[in-house]
């Protein structure tokens, strides 16, 4: 998939655990883990906003598009 989720990178930069982020964002640990592992099929704008607020970052810091090689 050409959409890459860099949630783990931003969490490492902010030295924040999945549990801590889950509490700050109000998302279950399992749903946040699915997102972190790039297995989510969609993300709500509200969720992205809450994650950006908690990690003090921009949406582009978390979601990246990489063109696939044909």
Task: Fill in the keyword field for this structure.
mainly alpha, two-stranded antiparallel sheet, globular, 70 residues
List the helices and strands and how they pair.
Layout: E1 3-5, H1 7-13, H2 18-25, H3 29-36, H4 45-55, H5 59-62, E2 63-65
Antiparallel strand pairs: 1-2
In short:
The chain contains 5 helices and 2 strands. With 70 residues, it is mostly helical.
Structure, explained:
- The chain has helices spanning 7-13, 18-25, 29-36, 45-55, 59-62; strands spanning 3-5, 63-65.
- The protein contains five helices and two strands; from the N terminus they run E-H-H-H-H-H-E.
- By secondary structure, it is mainly alpha-helical.
- The radius of gyration is 12 Å and the shape is globular.
- Helices cover 54% and strands 9% of the residues.
Number of DSSP strand runs: 2
Question: SSE string, helix = H, strand = E?
Answer: EHHHHHE
Radius of gyration, Cα only, in angstroms? Answer: 12 Å
Strand order of the largest sheet: 1-2
Number of helices: 5
Describe the global form: globular
> What fraction, in percent, of the residue positions are helical?
40-55%
Q: pLDDT average, as an integer?
A: 93
Instruction: Name the structural class.
Output: mainly alpha
Enumerate the spans where pLDDT stays under 50 for 5 or more consecutive residues.
none
Estimated share of beta-strand residues = 5-15%
What is the distance, rounded to the nearest whole angstrom, between the alpha carbons of the first and last residues?
12 Å
**Quaternary form:** single chain
- Summarize the biggest pleated sheet: 2 strands, antiparallel
């Amino acid at each position: 998939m050409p959409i890459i989720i860099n949630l783990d990178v931003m969490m490492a930069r902010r030295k924040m655990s999945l549990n801590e982020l889950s509490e700050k964002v109000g998302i279950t640990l399992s749903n946040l883990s699915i997102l972190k592992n790039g297995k989510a099929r969609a993300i709500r704008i509200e969720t992205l906003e809450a994650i950006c607020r908690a990690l003090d970052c921009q949406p582009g810091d978390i979601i990246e598009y990489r063109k696939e090689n044909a």
